[in-house]
């Protein structure tokens, strides 16, 4: 048994080397994220593994688990500490080594193993670590599982058992790549920029894209855990602008940007225009519904309203379900509904058969974009984008708000805007047509203009997105309403970017 974890122990002390440090707020809605040193240490990683192993036994899951780690200076150490914790309650650990998150999900299927614990901070800045976990492939943990895991870990409970073991699986990366590219070969030449922000995907993306027939222009594909150019986050405008410059300079047909653990993909068209991932989703939904009319899709509440109004999707008899933002939520909903695919504005794409296995994989999304272009010879991606009805849309904006208080701020926002709507008050000069509270609050005005505010699931931030199908002025007007409320809340800090 390990000592009971604490949230307060200073680095460079004997206590730091003998006590698990685990800040409770690191247990997010559907995965875990901590700052190394001040919120989490190696003893904490061991305690986390011990808790995961006990949760598997509690849920009646066979105690076999895949582990992997992303390319950060500390990820391997955290994984090995977690592995020691997993073995203590009798788990048999199958280590695939340096990996993308979707490679770990694939391993659950390829190795017939029920559980996964992937050490990754995803798109978070350096200094962060975390774990994405699941025990019911292709799903990852949701709030119930994370909540119970938090109870087990922080209470120091759990039972040690015999039977734990460890094996390292050499060469699994090649097996994953072979599966991705099997039967995939483009009929027409395609030049692409592959941008990886010096993250883990740099080891995979160029090889995969070349294997399906692309000419690849590599951008920041050399692994460097210092992330010297920008954070590998395809929702970050700095990364997208770098990709846009590379596309224009090289004359590529498309730019594809991958996050730190390879489960997200951002897209830039041939003109150097960044296409937000929700609109890429509309294009992919058009493409897939032409092949499979009557398809249903799941999209997150941050996504464009075009999923409901696009005439091509209506013609193809598409059904759309707006659901909670978060890879675990959308993945679960896609599989509950048997949807053809799911799309998130953050760049998570979830494809069911015949494209994928239901989990999010940025490389599968990249292949899907390339195949869409291959099925539309003579049409550029910018032409496909221009065929969408026009909307004015913001990037994802993230004002700082502490983990301990962000949900309270969102609750106040929900109450404030619901009261406005119910009283008949106008917002941005318009009546409120609909209020959606499945995840934060999405306020829809009479002309279809909408604005969203919700709590980030994995960082101490709020999330704000606005869109208008009628004008930039209306987009800015709904943002002014939301920003006016948030600016009056003392817990809300600076935005990462604004429109």
Q: What number is the mean pLDDT?
A: 96
Shape: globular
Count of helical stretches: 16
Provide the gyration radius in Å.
22 Å
What class would the helix/strand composition place it in? alpha/beta
Name the poorly predicted regions: none
In helices, the fraction of residues equals: 25-40%
Described by strand count, sense and barrel closure, the largest sheet is:
6 strands, mixed
Query: Whole-Å distance between the termini?
Result: 52 Å
**Which strand order spans the largest sheet, edge to edge or round the barrel?**
1-5-4-2-3-6
Number of strands: 20
Approximately how much beta-strand content do the residues carry? 15-25%
Question: Quaternary state, please?
Answer: single chain
In short:
With 499 residues, the chain is α/β, with parallel strands linked by helices.
Quick tags:
about 500 residues, alpha/beta, six-stranded mixed beta sheet, five-stranded mixed beta sheet, 16 helices, 20 strands, about 35% helix
